[in-house]
């Protein structure tokens, strides 16, 4: 992560290239962006934008560079787009930043420190499972882009009757949230285990490959409990165990019950390799 940050800092005057940055962290673009967000609370794009506008403000306040030149240097196609982004961060226009006593905001460079926790145990089990079929509805999403998220997709599937259709087709009344085809973007599927090869109208069938899974139990109201569990899996469990993510789909298993209750239980299945 430190290598990735160093590369980002050296190239703030260049277009953001997540694939190159992820390589510096020995990671795929998807997993790098997810880990960066888990550790910092910011997407890679948000962080680089704030850093660029911090450096741009400093340049405007301390040099005679033209606004249009500074805008182009930090990746903005027009002074108007630069001015809009600049005002959103600093509360003033780029030209006002030149005035003596102008108040500007600095977003400092992030640094990472290794912290040893372990005050709360992570309970898990490891199981080998054969390949199985799932049927459901899927959408293409981009990591870090919250304009249309997993939560939005769940809401749409509740409204259009997809959830009701899937629950009624599964004798265990379980719903699966599956993250697959992982790259810079990914497929997210709301599904149930397929009883038949021919799906109902509007649904598709996918094969989940045979895997070794590490299975964690989440207890608490959604979505907070499961989001917190994912963070702990990647921040604590993986570094402590010597396993790696195999690249196969990740599965959220939602069991029957009140998902807003303090004792609601569901599972997270992560595919692993030793």
Using the coordinates shown, work out and report the CATH topology of the largest domain.
Answer: Multidrug-efflux Transporter 1 Regulator Bmrr, Chain A
Distance between the termini: 22 Å
Number of self-contained structural domains: 2
Give me the Rg, rounded: 23 Å
State the CATH superfamily name of the largest domain: Regulatory factor, effector binding domain
Instruction: Quickly give the structural class.
Output: alpha+beta
What does this structure look like?
The chain contains nine helices and nine strands. It is an alpha+beta fold. The protein folds into two domains: 2-98, Orthogonal Bundle (Arc Repressor Mutant, subunit A), CATH 1.10.10.60; 124-273, Regulatory factor, effector binding domain (Multidrug-efflux Transporter 1 Regulator Bmrr, Chain A, Alpha-Beta Barrel). Strands 1, 2, 3, 4, 5, 6, 7, 8 and 9 form a nine-stranded antiparallel beta sheet that branches. This is AraC family transcriptional regulator. InterPro entries: AraC_E-bd, GyrI-like, Homeodomain-like_sf, HTH_AraC, HTH_AraC-typ_CS, MarA-like, Reg_factor_effector_dom_sf, Tscrpt_reg_AraC-type_HTH. Keywords: DNA-binding, Transcription, Transcription regulation. Residues 2-100 form the HTH araC/xylS-type domain.
